Amino acid sequence: MANDEQCQDEESLRERIVRHEWEQFQQVNNEGGPANCQGNWPMFHQMRLSQFLTWPHPLLTSYADDLDQADKQGRNLLTEKYGRMMESTAPDLYHSSIAPYLPRLGLARQEQQERIIDRQVAWAKDFRERYPRLGQEMRVLRTCEDTPEATSFETYLRGELGTYSARTLDLYQSMVDQIEARGGNLTEETILATVQMNGFETLDEAEQAQNRPPEPQSGASISSTCRTVR
Fold first, then answer.
1. Is the CB of residue 189 less than 8 Å from the CB of residue 179?
2. Distance CA 131, CA 88 (A)
3. pLDDT tens per residue, the chain (230 residues)?
4. Mind spelling out the 3-state secondary structure of 147-211?
5. C-alpha distances in angstroms, 151 versus 72, 144, 170?
6. What contacts 83, CB < 8 A, 6 or more positions away?
């Protein structure tokens, strides 16, 4: 009974986090008006929930508190996330109009983030090699592949990690370390959660259901958060 209650509590917490992110996402200013995915709640819900299904309870609780604290401080973590991505995709605009308004990240913090990013980029690369048809739905992989219209997995992750509190980032790193220690792959676990939400039991089943051959990766725009998978 206690386990059932804990599962229900975690389910409720995940849903609250996704809804809170969605509310902040609606306030993100996008050049040219609202992005298409800012009006696509079902896709946003699925993609973000699949990520949080891989997170342990202490990490969920800490990130939920980050969102609450941001509201109290007049900050928007989704705006900050997309703003940080623009250091790569629109550097001139970033340095002139965005960076001065973002919380500064110290060198130790940046180094911690980069260690996490290196591990996750390696996992994403491994997943795409083993599941090329599912992999073609992901973003391009590396920051060096960024364009004003296409934001890579690496850049997106760097932007998101940059919004976490020190406590949340430490818990996130602990999760990554534990997954690595048991030989897991966070990208694989997240996409498995995604395909299971779409009615598939396994990644192999979902891979075979993709009835078109892999194509060159075209990426997704900075506003296309709904397509991002970890």
1. yes
2. 28
3. 556 666 778 999 999 999 999 999 999 987 655 666 777 999 999 999 999 999 999 999 999 999 999 999 999 999 999 999 999 999 999 999 999 999 999 999 999 999 999 999 999 999 999 999 999 889 999 999 998 888 999 999 999 999 999 999 999 999 999 999 999 999 999 999 999 999 999 999 999 998 655 444 433 222 333 344 34
4. CCCCCCHHHHHHHHHCCCCHHHHHHHHHHHHHHHHCCCCHHHHHHHHHHHHCCCCCHHHHHHHCC
5. 30, 10, 25
6. 94, 98, 101, 102, 159
Nearest to 63 by CA among 104, 13, 7: 13
Q: How far does CA 141 lie from the centroid of its chain?
A: 13
Quickly tell me which residue has 């009835």 as its tokens. 211
Whole-angstrom Cα distance, residue 158 to residue 155?
Answer: 5
Q: Could you identify the residue written with the tokens 């980032």?
A: 169
- Cβ atoms of 163 and 80 within 8 Å: the answer is yes
Structure tokens at 158: 């760097």
